[in-house]
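Risk register update: the risk that structure generation would not scale has been downgraded. Supporting records follow, first protein first.
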Amino acid sequence: MPIIIKYIMKSMSEKKLRTFLILLAVMLSGALCLTSLSITDSLLAIYVEQMKTSTGTAQVCIRPGENSPSQVISLTPGKALEQQVEYMIPVLSSSGTYDSGKKVVDEVSIMGVALEDYLQMNKLQLISKRSNADFTNNQIIISDQTAKKYQLEIGDALEIRINNIKRKLMIYGITSKVGIFSSEGNRSQILMPYTTLSKYLGTHQKPSSIYIKGKEGVEVSQLLKDFKVAYPKYEVAEPIPIEDIRTMLSMFSTLFMMMTLIVTVMSVFIVYTSFKVIMLEKMPIIGTFRSVGASQKMMKRVLILESSFYGVLGGIASWGLGIIILKVLLSVVAASEGIGGKIDLVITPDYLLGSFLLCIIICLASSILPILKVAKVPVKEIVLGGSNHSVKRKRSKEIRSIILVVFSIVAIKILPESYRITAASICVFLALIGIIGILPTIIKLSSRLTEKLFATLFGNVGVLAVKNIKGNKSILNSMSLITLGVGILLMVNNIGENLAVEVVNAYEKSFAYDVQLSLDNMDTNTVRSLLYEEGVTDAYGCYVSGYYYGKNIELVDYNNVKLASIEGVSGKVHADYLTYGYENEEEKDRILEQLGEGRNIAFSNVLKKRYSLVEGQKIQLKMPEGLRTYEIIGFYDTLMNNGDLVQIGEAYFKQDIGVHNYTTIYLKTSKEPTEVLEALKIKYKDRHLSGATMRQQLQNNKEGNAQIMSILSGFSVLAAIIGVIGIINNLFISFIERKRSIAVLRSVGMNKKQVIQMIFLEALYTGLLGAIAGIGAGWIIMNNMPYVIEGMQLPPIVYFVANGLWVYIGVATLVTIVASISPAFKTSKLNIIEAIKFE
């Protein structure tokens, strides 16, 4: 046994390229698996850490709601619960403007809190501070970023407009970017004494929020319950809605699981074909070991041990690659969301074990068939060279493969909605297996026509090339890898193209405004005053609420699912700015008019399909003002807010949600929208006007989607590269297996040039058929992707794009021909006598 193991270890070290290929294939699958498992938790940690910059260690937060009697809170009710809490800190939040001499006045965020209270719940790292002053009165703390930005130092005075009055403030300290300063972007953050800001805002020492942390042993659920009783008219909740964020982020995990599944199929093929080469090369040595006493059982164990060794090495290496991939992905997402600071990965032992086991399973499952096949070959046949058996392919196998393909297309459409993400993934896997299984049938059906074509173009060498492909498992495996590679690339590129097209279409179909803005106290007078501004031709104030806007509005009859967005509609004018896809003009007018005639509601078609809604159906909503029953009067198309959007009448919106100010204002302009927006920012600086043009919103959305798709494209290209290496590997297998037959052809008159031509024609045929089959695989994957996307609570906007398919065919064919160069020239240099003797 030690001798055998020593030989295998030496063999692995000698065949470095093949060992690298196997490890790379296994490692990529394991890395993607680790990424898929860890991505949701890691993104969640980033968002939670980002939100903790303002909430610190607080476990409960009390804030005014839209139905609260005041925008400030009394501390008196909470004092009765002081024995349960470690701290109960009053905080004021506001904003101001700083005129730095630029064209646009800069906005600043202000937190008012006692310094000793802030240090209890959050971090502060003062780089420098005033030695002769306390943090009282008009003293403030700024970040080193702000100090550099405005060239400020300790003791400098600056004027900040707060509550429409300029206040002269003195810099008490400069801190590094920790705590509330860690997420500071273009908008500077200021820390100010609580009593001072209360005086400036006139809150009479009442806070705008209260942060609470319970004593050790006190459950958060109990704190929430008790403080909800103490503050029934205010919002009492955990500062960070972790489960809601987790649900939103789960789509990343699903996308990568799909990619992992497809790459795993490729890895299985590569490892399988690599072990075929290993077994072919080891046949003489295996025969030697068997002839001197090694049993079949012993050889099986040793070869399985070698396979496991690849799995172990690949599994360990996959951790490193997975961490790199995860870090890159998180950095891209963080950059697109404007999140700064350190990025921590959340990788649990279970995730590491799961990816490691996948690598082991891939190696064992892929190598077991070649190992068992070699182990069963009698010693006599190995020694005498009688190990080649012609195995006739069973027709039942092809029939089963066709059934798998048909099932994968049909099954997803008839299964219940709740199983569709899992079902779609399984159907994709079955479809790929099925397509690979029917490749021999495709070869058989196409060979007659191809033989005639190749005979006309290339003579007998062309006919021979087509005949050689029939029943050649190595070439079939190459074709399978081409099929998988083209299918993956087609899927990723299709999704990318779908997003690029549909995002633009969604904006063009949904929005007819030029500028969207918000400012303090938006009411009808605000809209009226904006109409007199230069460059503004029309303005419309809109009410919006829902989960995306921090308010819980739930569909009671559907497990209290939260609506992402709900609009208050002010008649037909609403469609002049938000032009959703109604069935026709008459239907649009009817719906918009009826929304104002009672508690009527219109749903997007995405929600209609998701919840099987019908017109005339009564539906109960849990709203801030209590339970309300609405009647569904119609539906419309939109992809905004991922299609999670409903409309009700403006009057009922204000009554049932308790909102009195507009959420946003839309403008139409006669001048360049960017110029109009910049002018408004200067004029309404005291009301903290902010906004964006419709073109800016579209560009930001496109850039965010492009970043995610670039990562997926990178994975697909990496998978394709591995596939190319696998193709080369299979062509070498074919070369090893056909040494004798090629030598016989050479001995009866075929010259070197004809041998090379024959191998290139085989590659041409393999590339063409593989690419066509890959397009079929891509079509089936794209056929199932809408159900995956829909199961992720996203609009199913993915579909198969037929443009440019010739590129996939051309590239796949070219890759196969290039990959065949080395085997072709090796074959042409074959020693005829040695090859005929070889077995």
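Supporting record for the second protein:
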Amino acid sequence: MDTDIIIPIYNAFDFTKKCIETVIEHTDLTKHTLLLINDKSTDQRILPLLNLFTAEYPSLNIAIINNESNQGFVRTVNIGMQHSSRDVVLLNSDTEVTKNWLPKIQKCAYSKAAIATVTPLSNNATLASVPDFMSENTIPSDFTIEKYAEIVERCSMNLFPEIPTANGFCMYIRREAINNIGLFDEKAFGKGYGEENDFSYRCLQAGYRHLLCDNTYIYHKGTQSFSQEKTELINSHLQILKKRYPSCIENTESFVQQNPISDIQLNIRYAINLHSKKNVLIVIHDFKEAEKKNIGGTTLHVHDLIKNMKEEFNFHVLYYSDDDFKYHVTSFLPFDKITSTLGAYSQYTTLNLYNDTFNRDIKILIDTLKIDLIHIHHLKYMYLDIFKVAKEKSVPVIYTLHDFYSICPSMNLFNKETFLCNYANTAGCGSCIAKTFSLNINFIPLWRKEFYENLKTVKKIIVPSYSTKNIFLNTYKDLTIEVVEHGYDKINEKPNNDNPDKKKNKKFNIAFIGYITEEKGLKYLEELTEKVKGTDINVHLFGQTTNKKYNKNKKNYIYHGKYIQQDLPNLLLENNIKLICLLSMGPETYSYTLSESLISEIPVVSFDLGAIAERVKRTDVGWILPINSTLDDIFKLISTIKSAPQEYEQKVERIRHFLKDMKSLKDMGNEYTEIYNKTINAFPIENHDIYYVQSRNEFYRKGKEILTLNLREEKKEYKRVKHIIKSSVPFKQAFNEVQNFRSTYTSSKYRNKIFFKFIWYRILRINI
């Protein structure tokens, strides 16, 4: 269908030139007509520019109307629509159209009945703005407008949703609507601002609809600032609209509040971010912020990988949250950090190895986020379907075994009498299962059978220590397992150790680190605390215990409580800690606390068990006790260390020697980057179903479910945003803060309240 493209022009030479050039490049002007209307521009270069285009392209349908006097924007647009007898596109002169723009918009305009207008997506078009709604968006520096538009088209779900009003920056109008509704109201809106809303609302009242063309992207430079005169003009025209169309205005405001097209925005946000890098799905049981106190070693390791590899890969972390009992995905992308909700499934129990709903959602997740590699770090709360789906979709899997969950869901293989349980004899697991899980059925044979079958499909299995590898190979004998130790960064700046209070303190300070449970040596902490009373030895705890009696100070015992991981080395040095007790009664697979001790140049005491003993023996940076050593054995060793300063200094020197060549986080990132790239290149993904609209709709629908945050944080955030609204920050910044609050606290009693505060302080009070 032939269409007339109307561009009203007043000055803006460079923008106008670029706009016309893109229309000529991307539009079939042997079929359609480009109508250029010069509204008596004061820039004398404009008319010659328009004539130049007609001269250079004589075979194209380019027409010029030159107003003899300045008619104003709305009258100029009406002149164009009266000149035409066909469908029209009203196109601002500060826009840049993109490939196939007009055919796509036309198809949208005739995709449904009773359509009056169509508005494409843009960087700066209020309701049609993407990826940030109601905002002026910046195109990333490594994207051209054409490339951005191509990705928008390629990822589009082609929903063509209804919107309450068109936007005049690029407004397709069907001739039927013009004939039945009339032209723009140039009497009321002659100088512009609000005329397209007035026309749109008249169309709505007549039964017509307005669509958003979500597969087409048009760049719009837009107005960068408003003068006082323009602001007053906008406000006065808004009052006209409110008086004429109160219900339409109310519906538009409701549309802005609810943002029903957020799926489109989120889809584009992901598509742009996913474009230039490979995408890695991290699977983990728990994923708290790195700055939280006492987070686990597995979570710390994942944060370290992301921090040191985010320039190379997009990371998407799938985890279970015990705050709301739901599964979430946090994506770390070049321009965003996005958290979406995957779903909520039947409560996890020991025997729930598979879950059909989880299986379906993982398929959707992998396709929607274009996952190239899955790196599993922990499967607690997860289901083994992750392996099945990966195999079905030919997505390679790497599995880092941080503990012994795949051998037994107790994870630690701990036995209080023997330290390491007899895990090889599954027949003897019944009594432990009865005590640990309150079950009378020995499920370990089935558990290991299913894990073994799935582990055989993994492209690479990694453990952080050789002792861990040996334990796994005793259980799963024919697996190929690679040892890749974790990295750790040294202290950048050590605290001043010349504190006079330290010199006065003649005590020998020893410390326990972390969350001290029974398997982590709680009984030794309790016994030592009693043993050192009245001696020249102090016991410190940096962390917490399961015995609350020891979460407070006692004589010769100092309780420091939770700590942030990066603060620990300095805390140890500031408290003049001389020896660290790592008395785990079960085998560790690596031990971050050992790394933290070593970078603080503090020797350790441990049992001859697991990765701690392996690492201490290899570098000779501490003392190893036989398993089942008594309290007297431990106290005797500590006393010997205290009274043998020469041997102690030898251990410290060996630590310093070790630190010179210690693997850093950067080294570890480089090592895993090589592993990832080799795996991805060896097993490239060829069949992502990225056009499966129903799947992506389901993902984005669930993505609207936001983590429930506590009321104290909610109220504090409400007060902060209200302060911003009342301050002198720019309108856009204040609006974005309101939108962020409303999208985060979806069920909050403050959600509508903050919106009304915004209207009052930022709109209504301006007019009073």
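The chain is about 40% helix and 15% strand. On this basis the risk owner (M.S.) recommends closing the item.
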